[in-house]
Write a structure and sequence with these properties.
Length: 118
Amino acid sequence: MSTDDELDEIRKRRLAEIQRQQAQHQQSDVQSAYQQEQARAEMDAQKQAILRQILTPEARERLTALKMSRPAYVEQIEMQLISLAQGGRLPSQIDDEKLKTLLMKMQPKKRKTSITRV
């Protein structure tokens, strides 16, 4: 066997080993992503269950509609509502009117800009 043949054989083995390692790495990445997605889905399901308990159907509809235009804002509000409920600071279920009031209070103040011509 010549040195060229030996080198080719070594290259083939090394290539096969690298491919095996990459396949294992990709498989572990897929499993990790799947586990993260499952955890995220489970957390979302728990959050929705809590929101169902503390909000009336009309209030949930309002939040869902608002979520389409301002998802980060609604996420923040949902987390605050959940923390209030878990802390026992919500005396009763929040209806649509209470939610509207809460949204108005939590909304950032708008600046009034005026342009005057000289």
